[in-house]
Every structure is written in C-alpha cells, then in structure tokens.
Known about the structure:
By secondary structure, the protein is α/β, with parallel strands linked by helices. 27% of the residues lie in helices and 14% in strands.
Amino acid sequence: xxxxxxxxxxxxxxxxxxxxxxxLAIGGVGVGLGxxxxxxxxxxxxxxxxxxxxxxIYGNSDTPEWLRDVTTGELKPNPQWILRHTTDxxxxxxxxxxxxxxxxTGRVQRIIGNPYHPNTLIDYTSMSVPFIRTAAHPxxxxxxxxxxxxxxxxxYRVLSPLKRKGPRGSGKWQPISWEQLIREVVxxxxxxxxxxxxxxxxxxxxxxxxxxxxxxELMNPAAPELGHRTNxxxxxxxxxxxxxxxxxxxxxxxxxxxxxxxxxxxxxLSHHVATDQVFPGKxxxxxxxxxxxxxxxxxxxxxxxxxxxxxxxxxAAHARAKPDGLKYxxxxxxxxxxxxxxxxxxxxxxxxxxxxxxxxGMIRWIIENRRYDAAYLSHPxxxxxxxxxxxxxxxxxxxxxxxxxxxxxxxxxxxxAAGLGGFKGDSAADRVVIDPAGRxxxxxxxxxxxxxxxxxxxxxxxxxxxxxxxxxxxxxxLDEYSSICGVSKERMIELAREFTSYGxxxxxxxxxxxxxxxxxxxxGVAVLLLNLLVGNMxxxxxxxxxxGSWSYKKGLYDNxxxxxxxxxAYGVMITRQGVRYEDTSEYQALVKAGKNPYPAKRPWWxxxxxxxxxxxxxxxxxxxxxxxxxxxxxxxPFYSVPGQGNPEIIKMMKDPRNVPLIIASDIVVGDTxxxxxxxVPDGSFLERWNVDGTLPTVLTKGTYMRWPVVELTHKxxxx
Length: 719
C-alpha cells in the first residue's frame, strides 16, 4: 500500500501514441489467449483431447487420389476414389478438369486441373503419357472452377420439375412429375386451373402441340416475311454454346421457329462485329502471349479478364519472366488487382469509352512517321501475299468509291465499274487496285499495288482503303486526341513508337472494356487496325485466331440438319436482327400510304446478331409479333440486362395475357426463373454433355468434351 500510495503522488510519464497502441495490443493478446488456456496446455504437453484425427499424416482431410508402394516407390490409384476428366463451365474458358469422386457415395470431393488440357499447363501433358504418371503433375484450375462443387450440390438445387402454385413470382412451387410437365406444356388448355391464381386459372393456354398445328399459318398475312405462327415459340439462351446450342437450334428449326438465340449482345456483341469487320469470318483473336515482345491490352488485363483467364495469366507471367521477355501496357480507366506488376508492365489511365481516340492518335503518328509495314500492306490478295512469304493480306490497296453522288458510294470499286470488263467468280473478290505503274488493275492480277492513291478511274472518284484510314486519323491532331482520351500526347507517341519497335511481335488486343459503349464498335475497329499496320497476323509473337478445332458436326450422324423440317422455320426473328427495316412490308406500306415510316416501333438491327436484350421488350410490345411460349435456358435477363429487372417489365411479365406460357430450365429458382410457370431441372456443368473448340489464346488445335461425371437430377422412368 505504501508503494502504491507513493506512486499515486508521483507524476505519470507522458504516454506516446506508440506506447498506447502497444499496451492495447498486449492487452488484446492477453484477453484472446485467456480463452484458450486449456488448449495451449494441451498443445504444449501433446495431450489428445476430443476425437482423434482419422490419419496421422492427412488428419481429417480426404485421403489422396494416389497411393505409393512403400517397397517399390511406385504410385497406384487409390481405390477409394474415381477420377474423371471433363471441362469447366463456371465461365467460358472451358478449362480441363480432373474430378475426384467418392466411389461409395458418388459425391464429388475435389476438382483440380486436367494436366492433358492446354488451358491448365503451359507445357501440358502429352496424351501418350500414362494416366498414373500425371499424379505428381496436376493441372491448375481457378477458384471459380473449384466452386463447381458448390454449384452442383447447392442446397437449393432444382432436381425435379416444378410448377408454380399461385401467381407468377409468388415464390410458391409444387413438384410435379415429368409426365405431368410434358402433358401440360404440350397439350395446353386450362393448365393453371390448379394454381389458385385468379389471373390465369381460367386462361386457355396454347401448348407446343397447338402452336405446332399452326406451322403453316402466316404470322401476319400482310407481312409474309415474318414467317409462320410457330415463330411464337421463343427460346432465350444464356451461355448455351457449342453442341448444346446446335441442339437447341435444331429443336427450334424442327418445331418451325427461328427464335432460338444466345446471350452475346449482353456481353460484348460490338467486340464480335468489330473483329469480324477487320478479320472477316473471325469473332475473336488473341496475342501469341508466350512469344510476343510487346502487348497493349485495351479494356482487359492478363488473368483478370479475357478467355481463358487462368491460361492468359500464366502465359503473361511466363513470357514476362524471360530474359528480354514480354513488356505489356494496360489501357483501362480502372486498374484491377494484379494487372500491372513489376518493371515490365505499365498502366495507361484513359477516360471511359475513348479508346478509339488513343488508337487513332497512334495510327496517325505511325502513318506520318512511316512506321508501318509497307511491303506487307502492298499485297492485294492472299495469293500474292503468300507468294511473297506473308501469312495474310489486307485490303489497304483496294479502291473505294468516294463520290457521294455515285449509287455505290462507300463501296469497293468493281472491275465492271472500272471499265476492266466483267468479273467471273466470287463478287466479294471483285476489287480494283492501282498497280505499280499507275494503271487500274484487278486485284487478283497484281502482285503489289499502290497504298496511296486518290483520283479517278473510268470517271469515278476513288481512294485506296489505306488513304481513307489516313484521312480518318488526320481528322484530329494529336493534341485533340489527347484532350479527348485524357492520355498525354507524349505518352501517345511513346506507345506508338514502342508498338512499332518489335516488328511482328507486337500486338494490340482488346476485350469488353473497349466495346461496352455506344461507340464500342468504332473503338474496337481502331484498336484492331493497329495490328494491320505492323502485319502481325499469324506470325510467332503476333496476333492469332488460335489453333482451331475439329468439327463435331461431321461424322457418322448428321448433328445439324433436320431434312423433314427444311423450310418450316423461316422469317424475321422477334429481335429484328439481320434485317433492314426498309425491306419490310411495314415500311413499304407506310411509304405507299404517304406516311412517314420513321421511327419504327423498335429498332431494327441489320448488322447485329444474338440480340438477347431485345427479346423481352419486343415480346411485350408484340413487335413485330408476340410470344406464345417463352423458354429460358441458362438465362437471367432480369439480372444480366441493365434495366430489365425494373418493376414495370416484371409487372408485365407476371401477366399471362402478355406471355401465356413461360418455362425456365435452371439449376435453382433464380431471379428470372422465379417468374416462370414451370421450372425444368437443368444439370450443372458436372452433369452435362457438350462439345466445342478451344479458344484462340491456345495455339493447339483441340476439341473438348464435357460429359456427366455425376448424375443428380431426377429422371423419367425410361431414363
């Protein structure tokens, strides 16, 4: 007491911030350890408490897939487990998987990478290597692929058909048999009389059978181009790809409907259209990452986005680690996790949707400083290019009609229009160039041609495609481009100079970040045109369309055509894609009546495809016609399409007078399928069949197979 009394009289030493925090930390540790006093004693004394671990080495974890013979050291499969190979679909990368299944319970216990699959290893395993020898060298798989176990065994999985009990969206369901499901959706009638829903209990529904009976009736006799009444069946698909998509399209065609399509425009349609315009027939290109010297990633980053993600990330890390290896630049308003690491990567922060301005600024500087590959660009045809040792060609030398009064303004000059006589062959190959002597010539007759030309041919004003690109780039100065995109003029020039410093081992590649804007198509074209200037297509370290795949459509069986159904499915899709409004009966009737045909009730999309976002608004507005039966497969438009989950659309979808019958194929009752009349249990990717090709990042030619490694959903009596 005397010591305490004495201390109380003495002044306290000042407490520093560090001392205060240290005291708190010590106190916190003390309080925390206080609750584990008994455990600490047990650990120190090596005492056993509670249930003993199942194995002295593995603890309570699963035993390994392989066992080693202690005498010979050889590995052998563990009989407790079954190992099956399939491919992932937690995203679109389609990585190879090795699935570990309990032999007794049939339950999936673990998912790792299939070492034979090129997505999972840079030096993937040859198919000639015995299975047992891959034990120590498994492939990789990302966290999303591993989460396939959670998808398959989701406690809310739909494993048998469900029918709504109450109004649409009420959240009340009753399990029904497959036989009842098929009978009701095929026969139709008052199939909702047992739901307790006043809005639909006396509603007469046209089922598949009733609609199919109208397969020879026109949707609208005044507009025969709309096709037959069977187009009232609409199948809106999400990530339904490969052979699965071919199957559902075949089903739609056999039924008589053109309205079977997938999700592409909600993801990145402008990416596909831009790629197809620059590289005809291709919808995706990728850099040869492991051998490239310089890559500009526009709107994407290695490992964060693009397909296959884990493969792209591995390739970039591997290439960057080489002596004098890969350097890359990420052009993106947002720097994501791990996108730029180390001194061989950098970030260009650009204003959203202005990628085209930066790309055109680079193009202008490259052309003005003659940093492009003129020899490559001078070959007008593939034949001429290959004879010169090239792997591709461009239309840089082809002449374009620039006379705005000419009926073919903006199109390529043809042989006949140039006064060179008729052209026998593919009209798409009927192009005219200016040969080295300055004379007009058919493109196919010239080994090289002039890139820069502006003048007249046969009285028609023309310019080369290259000249048109140069003019477009010169519409703004570098300072103006800098102001638009927020990237300094100096950085723009630096990028252009470095991009043209590695020959064909430099690549300009993009993904969704560039094209998800109203001007996305133009952004995409500008970004991809940079590759043409350096001539990198199909060269080692350049741009590639991938290794390709073997067709699953050929073989013993015809997996595509339905001979008996030819001609039944035709007409304008409900999304109005691939059709000009000016070619429709509606437009022509309005013009004939002296009325202004514009605007149409909804837009028409002559150059687009897979217009997923247009399905529901078009059906609800019944333009150009309505929906009798709507089916969703892997589709969540209320979640994935901005604005379509709004109360107004949901209210309209809940009214059976707008869409009489809605069927969803889903693995759970989701944010969209909850408004269906019936839910058909779909399988997770671990329970599905599918066949498709590898993605362009992988240069190996390959076709993957997905097959049911487990079976969880209930079946019909006949299996």
